[in-house]
Structures are given as C-alpha cells and as structure tokens.
Amino acid sequence: MGKQMTEMLKGTLEGIVLAILSVRPAYGYEITARLRDQGFSDIAEGTVYALLVRIEQKGFVDVEKVPSEKGPPRKVYSLNASGRGFLEEFWTTWSFLAERLERLQVEGGK
Fold first, then answer.
1. What are phi and psi of 106, to 5 degrees?
2. What's the CA gap between 77 and 18, in Å, rounded?
3. Residues 67-71: contacts with CB within 8 Å, 24+ apart?
4. What is the pLDDT of residue 110?
5. At what angle do helices 3-23 and 28-37 cross, to 10 degrees?
6. 99-108: average pLDDT
7. 39: phi > 0 → left, psi -120 to 50 → alpha, else beta; which?
8. Closest CA to 15 of 94, 76, 77
C-alpha cells in the first residue's frame, strides 16, 4: 500500500470499521479479517485494536466480554445509537466528497 493510500485510510478507517460493525457485532480479529476480505490487506491488527479502543472511548460501540474456547474472554463490539449517528454522518460526508472528486476527475479528463 502506498503512502497516499495509508494517509487516506487514516481519515476513513474509523468509519469503515463502524460500517463493518453495522452489519453485525464482531471482535477484533474478526474485524481485521473482514477488512482483509474487503481488500484492506495491509491494515495491521494493532491498528484495528487501537482504533477499537478509541471508538469505545468515544462511546460509539457497546462492548460485551464473551467466553473464548482459547484464552481469555473476547471483547465483542456492537454499534450503538451514537455510533450509528456518527456512521450516518460519515456516509453523508463520504458521498459529498466522492461526488466532488468524481466531478473534478471528469472535468480534468476533458
């Protein structure tokens, strides 16, 4: 992944993870696996875990400790009302930016 992609992801990864959690609750490794399934193969697990701490501190998710067959209980994250509100705003902002970028790309290609 190039430097430009890494920088762009920094600003959007929170919304991407919340979008994943909007589908169904998940624990850290599962979220990382879903990101990889979506083509975000270079995102380190440590990055995801640090982000999960931040979104928990911001109050965007509810956390439940679920027993694990291997090792300590897993923290399962689920999107709450505050997180849904943030995600809705994220998608509105994303749509606004995507429209303008598409327009600029089309105009620049003339």
1. -65, -45
2. 10
3. none
4. 57
5. 120
6. 92
7. left
8. 94
Altogether, the residues listed in the chain come to a count of: 110
Two tokens at 60? 């965007």
Return the higher-pLDDT residue of 2 and 100.
100
* pTM of the predicted structure, to 2 decimals: 0.90
pLDDT tens digit string along 48-97?
999 999 999 999 999 999 998 888 999 999 999 999 999 999 999 999 99
Q: Which class for 20: exposed (0-12), middle (13-18), buried (19 or more C-beta within 10 A)?
A: buried
Q: Which numeric CATH code is attached to 3-108? A: 1.10.10.10
Give the chain's largest Cα–Cα span: 59
Number of H helices, E strands in the chain: 4, 3
Residue 49 and residue 66: Cα distance in Å, rounded? Answer: 17
Whether the pLDDT of residue 35 is over 90: the answer is: yes
Q: Where are the domains of the chain?
A: 3-108
